Amino acid sequence: MEKMKHKIGPALIILAGCFWGSMGIFVRRLSAFCFDSVQIVSIRVTLAALFFCLLLVVVDRSGFRISPHDLPLFFGLGFGSILFFTVCYFSAIAIMPLSTAAILLYTSPIWIMLMSAVFFHEKLNGRKLLALALAFAGCVLVSGISGEKITLTGLLLGLGSGIGYGLYSILGTIALRRYSPYAVTAYTFLFAAIGSWLICRPADMISKFAGAPDRTGLLLFCCLTALVTAVIPFLAYTLGLRSVEASRAGVLATIEPMVATLIGILFFHEPLTLLSGLGIMLILAAVIVLNSPSGSN
């Protein structure tokens, strides 16, 4: 049973990365309705919070009871990780090339490995470092390299997104020692949703909903966005963290840009370059290295 659990964990992390990789489809569609980046973040995390709370009612109603001492932990997960990294990432996209923003976001496995070594005393063995190098090189090649429009602000926002993204693995691992994955995700997104409404210009966002020609269709699409890009992947990732080291999970999740590239080819007819193809192979190689028998310890 324990062996099966350790096999399912990496599969859940990879599944989460695949779902995150589809985010471009939904973000582009919502942008067409004139929602700005922060409003899309708010729609996504608010509806995800509702879904997670409903799931918690069904699966683990006692999970709503948390210790007041753990509120700072969930504040960190909601504000410091989910909201912070998403706003940083979307803001970076607005002022620098998407490829550069994606590369900076995927510095997250580096931050996760460093924080895991400090907080959890995880060993930085040669296999992990090799997988990290392969994954990061793959992300650089998949995303492409551009030196245009890179400012200090953009650089800091991009690095901030990577740190915030990595922080979820660290704080999530701590929270899972005390609460179920359902409680962790519900409270994380509740805090993120509360924070998002402070910065999303709610009146403007609501007016855009009110003025939509097909409000029902838009609301259903927003619900689908939350399910596919937040609820399913974050629940899968959090469940995976129960049996996968945070540093290893961070590298496995780098399958996201590979999936995003493939979706771009299939749905938006974007070309597959030789470098992108090589990057995909490097990311897959990193996943194989981490999941080989001697690499899963």
Can you tell me about this structure?
The chain is mostly helical and 297 residues long. The chain contains 14 helices and no strands. α3 (37-59) runs antiparallel to α4 (71-95). The relative contact order is 0.21.
* Beta-strand content bin: under 5%
Q: How many domain units?
A: 1
Sheet/helix structural class: mainly alpha
Helix count, per DSSP? Answer: 14
Q: Residue ranges: pLDDT <50 for 5 or more in a row?
A: none
Order of helices and strands: HHHHHHHHHHHHHH
- Largest sheet, if any? none
Mean pLDDT: 87
Tell me roughly what share of residues is in helical segments.
over 70%
End-to-end distance, in Å? 17 Å
Radius of gyration: 19 Å
Q: Rough shape?
A: globular
DSSP E strands, number: 0
